[in-house]
Design a protein that fits this description.
Number of helices: 13
CATH topology of the largest domain: BirA Bifunctional Protein, domain 2
Pfam family, one: Seryl_tRNA_N
Number of domains: 2
CATH architecture of the largest domain: 2-Layer Sandwich
Catalytic activity: tRNA(Ser) + L-serine + ATP = L-seryl-tRNA(Ser) + AMP + diphosphate + H(+); tRNA(Sec) + L-serine + ATP = L-seryl-tRNA(Sec) + AMP + diphosphate + H(+)
Enzyme class: ligase
CATH class of the largest domain: Alpha Beta
Strand content: 15-25%
Strand order of the largest sheet: 1-11-12-13-16-10-9-4
Protein name: Serine--tRNA ligase
Main location: cytoplasm
Structural class: alpha+beta
Number of strands: 18
Distance between the termini: 51 Å
């Protein structure tokens, strides 16, 4: 959430941001509502002050003039109640609109409408030239008996799945490797809750806009699409000390997305699913843009180093304004190479948020000069499974249909290679 004073003083800047994002929002409506709301606040406060004075001067019953004063008090009360009701209605509209105001993109964010307009920054690693006909990840998963999609669909419906054998072990190895790596970098490890209250989703900037892509329960809880949300709620309504910053958290959680509007996309394999697991990086830092920029590059570097350790070619792109989530200032997508598709596909997203979330969540810190400021927040994927299996299996396959396990994962799994099972053992 942006500060209303900032919006009021910089309407042209916000108009430019809305236009650059190709985002639909009625800024003029918000400014008019804000003006009316502030006028009503003054009227309500004036009436309350007048009512208080009248109450103090009211004479007890039986004395001359008390009836007239009582009538005046009643009239004041009625006027105040009408104004309070009027304010309540306009305040509700004001709060609704404020939740829809987008963040202002960083000047380095390129113009564009969709992910097709994202701009490549760098490529790392050369895609392998295979001297045999490669298998796609869907084929490898089946032939190596690492997944059961049919029974997954029977149990969980469309996009349901069971990971099994080394498919399960490989996923757990990836989680543990990412956690170990980031703990060594000074991150505090968490297992975050997947069921989170609605107000945390609102304050983290995921509601009301993205409701159709979320799973909700009957008791006003939502299933998270990322550990970013519970971890942002972790310090809700707290005041930290500047010397505590940065807060560096790495959190594991099951994640859930409806994938609304994705019917017909990636129906085979494990790239696009309703249920998946993620290890997420979260940073809370001082409210300085350059500090956010520094940590953004650092978080991105950590994810790149994880992909390098997994021996996966990838590229980094900067998301254009039209592909930038409405609460973010800047975002990089890291995209791993998919040999069967001859293209890079998103495996990580690394984002600067500034105080957009912390202002809503009231996450503040007391700075060295004694002032209280809203912290800045950042987030980035460390690893997401089973999505990363697509790139990992395809890039490390060998001609006989086996898959070499990256060296950094072997200690977790206890073997170097995943070999095909005989058909009698495949279920």
């Amino acid at each position: 959430m942006l500060d209303m004073k900032f919006i009021r003083e910089n309407p042209d800047l916000l108009k430019q941001a809305i236009s650059k994002r190709h985002y639909s929002f009625d800024l003029e409506r918000l400014l008019k509502i804000d003006e009316a709301r502030r006028a009503l606040i003054k009227e309500v406060e004036a009436l309350r002050e007048e009512q208080n004075k009248a109450s103090e001067n009211f004479l007890p019953a039986g004395r001359q003039g008390s009836k007239d004063k009582l009538d005046d008090l009643k009239q004041l009360k009625e006027s105040l109640q009408k104004k309070e009701a009027e304010f309540s209605k306009i305040d509700e509209e004001f709060r609704r609109l404020m939740l829809l105001v987008p963040n202002i993109p960083d000047p380095t964010v390129p113009e564009g409408k969709s992910d097709e307009d994202n701009v490549e920054i760098r490529k790392v690693g050369e895609p392998k030239n295979f001297n045999f006909k490669i298998r796609d990840h869907h084929t490898l998963l089946r032939e190596l008996d690492l997944v059961d999609l049919e029974r997954g669909t029977k149990v969980s419906g469309f996009r349901g799945y069971f990971l099994k054998n080394e498919g399960a072990l490989l996923s757990m190895a990836l989680w543990q490797f990412a956690l170990d790596y980031l703990v060594q970098k000074g991150f505090t490890p968490f297992i975050a809750p997947s069921l989170v209250k609605e107000n945390i989703f609102i304050e983290a900037g995921k509601l009301p806009l993205f409701r159709e892509d979320l799973y909700a329960t009957d008791d006003n809880l939502f299933l998270v699409p990322s550990a970013e949300i519970p971890m942002m709620g972790y310090h809700e309504n707290e005041i930290l000390l500047e010397e505590e910053l940065p807060k560096k958290y790495v959190a594991f959680s099951p994640c859930y997305r409806r994938e609304a509007g994705s019917y017909g996309k990636d129906e085979k394999g494990v790239y696009r699913l309703h249920e998946f697991m993620k290890v997420e990086q979260i940073i809370l830092c001082k409210a300085e843009h350059q500090e956010s920029v520094r940590w953004h590059e650092e978080l991105t570097k950590y994810s790149e180093e994880i992909l390098q350790a997994l021996e996966l070619p990838y590229r980094v792109v900067i998301n254009c304004a039209g592909d930038l989530p409405f609460g973010f200032v800047k975002m990089y997508d890291i995209e791993a190479w998919i040999p069967s598709e001859k293209r890079y596909r998103e495996s990580h997203s690394s984002s600067i948020v500034h105080d957009f979330q912390t202002r809503r969540l009231k996450i503040r810190y007391k700075s060295a000069d004694g002032k209280t400021r809203f912290a800045h927040s950042l987030n980035n994927t460390a690893i997401a499974t089973p999505r990363i299996l697509q790139s990992l299996l395809e890039n490390h396959q060998i001609e006989d249909g086996s898959v070499l396990i990256p060296e950094v994962l072997r200690k977790y799994i206890g073997k170097d290679v995943i070999t095909p099972r005989s058909s009698k053992n495949v279920s």
